Amino acid sequence: MILIDTNVILDVIEDDPLWADWSQAELDRAARNGPLLINPVIYAELSIAFQRFEELEAMLTGAGLMIESIPREALFMAGKVFLQYRRQKGTKPGVLPDFFIGAHASVLGIPLLTRDTSRYAHYFPQLSLITPV
Fold first, then answer.
1. Looking at residue 43, which CATH number applies to its domain?
2. Burial class of residue 79 in the structure, from the number of CB atoms within 10 Å of its CB (0-12 exposed, 13-18 middle, 19+ buried)
3. Model confidence over 50-67: pLDDT tens digits?
4. pTM
């Protein structure tokens, strides 16, 4: 099992000239090792790339991506990490999507495939990240 961050999926959908090949290769590699998961936060972020609900659903099915609910323990952790962020002079007024995503992977004890290394590495040091070198 592996949680797939929004940016990796969007790289492939939007055929990003810098990242599409890397993201597709990592998705293929991850798929050989077990289920590919997203959560409701990632789903909401992905929705911006689609005009219709049915299009997003078809993409998820075709890509073999399964939606996993965020456990309450992870929601609690996301709030605590946000508090840490605010105490370190973070300026965003609400819990950031990355905190929900990082906490979810942390609580499940599964890797996160992402290109956003710094925030996850800083706030979730125990999290196994699959990132570009």
1. 3.40.50.1010
2. middle
3. 999 999 999 999 999 999
4. 0.94
